[in-house]
Structures are given as structure tokens and as C-alpha cells.
Amino acid sequence: MKMDDTIFLFLCTLLVWLMTPGLSLFYGGLVQSKNVLNTVMQSMAAMIIVTFTWITFGFTLSFGTGNDLIGNFDFMGLQHVGFAINQDLSPHVPFALFMLFQMMFCTIAVSILSGSIAERMRFIPFTIFIIIWVIVIYSPVAHWVWGGGWIGKLGALDYAGGTVVHITSGVSGLILAIMIGNGKKIEKIQPHNLLITLIGGILVWMGWYGFNTGSAYSLNDVALASFVNTVIAASGGAFSWLVLEYIVTKKLSLLGLLSGVLAGLVAITPAAGYVSYLNAYIISICGGIACYFVINIIKEKFKYNDTLDAFGIHGVGGVVGAVLTGVFQSHAVNGDIDNGLVYTGNIHAVLVQLIAVVVVVIYTILLTWVIGKVLQKLMPLATTEEEDETGLDEIVHGEKAYFYGELNKLNKRY
């Protein structure tokens, strides 16, 4: 065990923890003022629910020895998880700290997912969905990629969760939103407070440095490369998004800047510790372009109900980043991996990444649909007309975020 690595991962874990309340604020500012507390509560409740689910079943199913498809129950209830290292999973840091770092990834994944169904899904069914989702979707995929499962053995790379976190949460959010959206009016929501969204975006942005850098699990050259690449990617995603936005609308919006930052960060996540600085910029630019296109053209064309574009940014950005990892991965940056397409001319690395992405997308779609259908048989998922009209904050939580006369008028207007 290395004490400097332990301190390093401890700090990164705190940064990743900060991302969930940050994302709750980011989403909260984007919804109608009468639903802001409900939106924030979806992310904050995720922290409570995921903690319980992770320590009982999620961690052991993700990282237990098991087989190629799922972990066993060796770590159920966190037995055998303490200060000592685990030679296979946490050779540099206490195993319990590794467990907590991974728990933060699962938590932010659930918070991301909530953006697709904000203002559309009833709170209690959402909390039940979270528990099932962590056990049957997130944990198996985490095991496939990081826990000794078939994707890892295939040779597919996912440095910090482009597939495990962003593709699963983004795709699940889209499927759930489509299921809930049937029969509900689809309308473009006007953000009620972009300053709250800015504060949340800054917290998520800052937390991402722990998200990517900590995934090296050691304060080494790979950690530094991933840190630099993360800084670069945030700017690359914002740059490409704003250029497109100006070409199309002749405007440069704050929301566009923040969306571009997130798109770039998502795209670099699976590749952060595997690619050079220049290639990180290329990946992030591609991520910004792809996410802008999906949100502003594809979504408008097909009218699906991805409320806050969790799929448009996280699902799409995760796919772009995962595939481009196979294109730009570099042995010079990370000695544990092989060179990718641009260095060898061999498409094998890209094909491996594509196989992993396609299987995870299909698995996530099918399992989300099954969970949603089962829950629909037991209880209604969509909000009622009264809740849509009056607001979820007052009806579900008995609270209001604002009590000022002007903002109360806006509640009625929006």
C-alpha cells in the first residue's frame, strides 16, 4: 500500500462525490421553477439509495470474482472489504477506499439517468427503478468491463466509465423517457434559472478531474495524462459546440457552453488515460459536434422525450468516446495497452470497442424496457395532469423552492 496513492484517491473520491449534488443543481436550474426541488431530490435521493444498494449487492456483483458475466457474493454486505489492499483490484490503496470510489461512479450514473425523466416520472417508482437498475444493469456491465468479465478479457478499454457510466445511464434514460412519454405532451422546457445551472455545471466540471484522474488509482504518469486530457477536453467540447451554435443560431449561449463542456468531458472519459493531448482535443471536438447534432437535429426530428438531454450528452458522448478510444489509444501514453488504429493501421482495436458498445447498448435497452414494463404493471410511472399543472414540488414534497411573487407568476406561465 502506498500512502500517497491513498491520499490521492481519497481526495478524488470526494471530488466525484461532489458531482452528484452538482448535477442536481445543473438539472434543477433547467426545469420549471415548480419542479426544481423534485429534480434536485431525484439526484440527492440517488446518493442514499445507491449507497444502500451498492454495499449490499452492487459492489460484490460488480467486483466479486464470479464468472465472465457477473460477480459472486464474496463482498456481499462489504465482508472482506477493509483497510487492507486487494491485490487484483486495489494493489496501491485500501480496498474499502476503492469500493467507495466505485460507489461514486454508480451514484453519478443514476443522477445522470434522472435527467431524461425530469418532470415526467413519479418519484416513488423512480426510486424503485434505481434499486433494480443498479443490480441488473449497472453492476453486470461494471463487472464485464472492470471486474474481470468478458469485455475486459476481450481487450476493450474503458478508462473511467464511458461505457459503464455514461452509455448505460444515457441509454436507460432514453428508453425510460420514451416509455413514460407515451401519451404525454412533449414540449420544450425553458430553464428557470441558468445561474443555478452554472453553479452546478462548475461543480460537475471540477468533480470530473477526480473522476478521470482518480481512475489511475495511483499518482503516476497516467494520472497526470488523464488530468491534462480532461482539462483539454472540456475546452474542446465547448469550442466545437459554440462554433456550431453560432453558425446555426448566430448566438453564443451559456447553456451551450456548459453543454459543450459536458459533451467533451463525457467523450474523453473512456480514453483519458490512454491518448495523447492532441488526440484528446480531437476526441472532445468530435464529442461536442455529435452531441450538438443529436440534441438539436435528431431529437427535434423524432420528438422523443429526453427532458434534459441525458442521452444526447452522456449516451451519445459515451459512444463517441468509446469508439474513438480504439482509434487513438497509445502505448506511449499508457504502457499497459496496445496502439490503436492511427498508429498501427489495424482496425482490430476499433472493432473490439464497437463490440463492447453495441452489446452494452442492446443489453441496456432490453433490461430497461423489461424493468419499466414490470413497474408499469404495478404502478403508474408518469406524472398526473394535476402534478404537471400544479408542480411536483408542492404535491409530492410539500415544499416550494421560491416564494417570491414574480416567480410564482412564472410557475403559472410555464
TrEMBL record:
It is found in: Cell membrane; Membrane. It holds the Pfam family Ammonium_transp. Its main location: membrane. Keywords: Ammonia transport, Membrane, Transmembrane, Transmembrane helix, Transport. It is a multi-pass membrane protein. The keyword Membrane applies. GO terms for molecular function: ammonium channel activity. The keyword NADP does not apply. The chain crosses the membrane at residues 6-31, 43-63, 95-114, 126-147, 159-181, 193-211, 223-247, 254-274, 280-298, 310-330, 350-371. One of its GO terms (cellular component) is plasma membrane. Residues 8-402 form the Ammonium transporter AmtB-like domain. It comes from the Bacteria. Belongs to the ammonia transporter channel (TC 1.A.11.2) family. This is Ammonium transporter. It comes from Staphylococcus petrasii. The lineage of its organism: Bacteria, Bacillati, Bacillota, Bacilli, Bacillales. The gene is amt.
